[in-house]
Design a protein that fits this description.
The chain has helices spanning 2-26, 28-44, 48-53, 57-80, 91-95, 98-103, 108-125, 130-136, 138-147, 169-176, 188-200, 252-255, 277-287, 317-327, and strands at 159-163, 180-185, 207-209, 229-231, 244-249, 262-268, 288-298, 330-340, 354-362. It is 45% helix and 17% strand. It has a 7-stranded mixed sheet, with helices on both faces. It has a two-stranded antiparallel sheet with strand order 3-4. It has 365 residues and is of the alpha/beta class.
Amino acid sequence: MADNSSQNIDDQLEKEHFLRVCNAFKFYRTHSHRRINDSEISYRALSKKHKELVPDFLENLENIRTCVDHNYEIIKLILHDAEYMFENQTQDTIENSEEDVKQTFPTSADMDKVRTTLKQFVRDWSSQGQQERDACYRPVIEEIVGRFPPQLCKRSDVKVLIPGAGLGRLALELAKLGFTCQGNEWSLFMLLASNFILNKCREENSLILYPWVHQWCNNKRTEDQTRAAHLPDINPGDLPEDSNFSMAAGDFLEVYRESEEWDCVATVFFLDTARNVIAYVEAIWKILQPGGYWVNLGPLLYHYAEMADENSIELSYEQVKKVIIEVGFQFEKEEMDIKSSYTQSVDSMFQYQYNSVFFVVRKPL
């Protein structure tokens, strides 16, 4: 009876979280229009002389509204297919949660995640994101290809896991190369979006998104804010017939507990999503086959560092490296100061760049 009660509580919490995320997506248009309306109020409060100096200001606000509305059409497509992700959630449940949108105001953090998800589409699935992908994904792909040469192993026999897979581009690229590859993602915002792009988009550049429409500062040109991105830049369904590619939802530490199951684990901008990075290192050690590789690239911007009521330890890379060695890994490659960015607009006057670390370690035979 206690187990059933616990399961019912877990199911209820899962449902509430699902509806909260859907609610945030649903609130996107209203929330975004409020910000636009605030700008209009500020403009109308200017003196006549100052208004005449920027006569196209209101016209640009209308363009921004139109872009927001267009983004919301994409969001509705994402939500339409959400029912297929969770068997215990139905389309009726999603549609009937409209009342929740009116009653519950999503947190600013939830709305930030919606906007970040839109920008993630650019990073993973547009030609505008090619530069970021080359900086972050290409070294990892090249390393995995080099560690598992076709003359020594059959690629389909090599199982590669990508924790923190986001919208799935890295995992898909490895599957296209013949590896058995699974992406894992915890964020429901990302999962809803990846389900849409991976399973429902089959025509190149068939969608238009305006990812920078919420960037009110550091625009060189007025039109930078309403610059469009076309996606997907490739057909996500264009995989070899014998390919083995999948996405798994859930907390990495909870989902992957089977010992010595994977030949390679690749982490890109993932380590710092941990509340306890040591637990990540131990988990990767456990699930890797003897002789298996862990390839990592990314910074240490610990996600829970400044969150209230969240436990988090923040280790320097020096400390993380010591933990990796103590657990038993052997370093085979290490490069510092890899220039990389995350969902960055290349036209912005403000550029945020990481000096990431790139390493390859091996679990000894």
